[in-house]
Amino acid sequence: MKLLLVEDNRALSEWLARTLRADKYTVECAQDGLEADGLLRTEVYDLVILDLALPGLDGREILKRLRSRRNAVPVLILTAFDATRDRVEGLDFGADDYMVKPFEVHELEARIRALLRRVNQQKNPVFACGSLVYDSNRREFTLAGAPLALTPREHAVLEGLMMKAGRTVSKKALAESLYSLDQDVNPDAIEIYVHRLRRKLEPGDAVIVTLRGLGYLLKPRHEV
Fold it and tell me: DNA binding happens at which residues (predicted)?
């Protein structure tokens, strides 16, 4: 899952980015509104964490522009503005959730998970594909009841497939969810991670199917 964190307080941005990366999210940071607006025009994200008081371009204007382009990425406003009017305005402009600073990081993490489940039309925090199970609260996979050992990049690829189990996910989409802007995006590298994942999934009954020219999909073996 690839997140954009828009926060002009550098210390807070760096701390929160480290925290979210430790939770196995890919995180990109923008510290002014113009940079954030540019990234949202060119990059694809699973969720945006947006401050309102930003240099260059106000967070409300970023949100208005984003929704005017019919971009439905979930947006969580994280701001010091705590008046009811600010909350109502932010939600009316198209935000999906609103949190006030200072905040508890565990609550922020829970709200992120809830928004990601909502956008994937999944209310249950536990995803299953045959004997492969993903607990999105713990961000842990099990296979036939046993913990599944994965590298961070293997985890990111399998998470991308699991969140859309039964649906095709393009190689490009998997690559973009895996890499941040300071890394080269090489869609062909996804083939390596898929190959490794297939070997690790062999003891169970979930398989990754290649659809030539389209991408990959995760499904139970008996449906292949």
Answer: 124-220
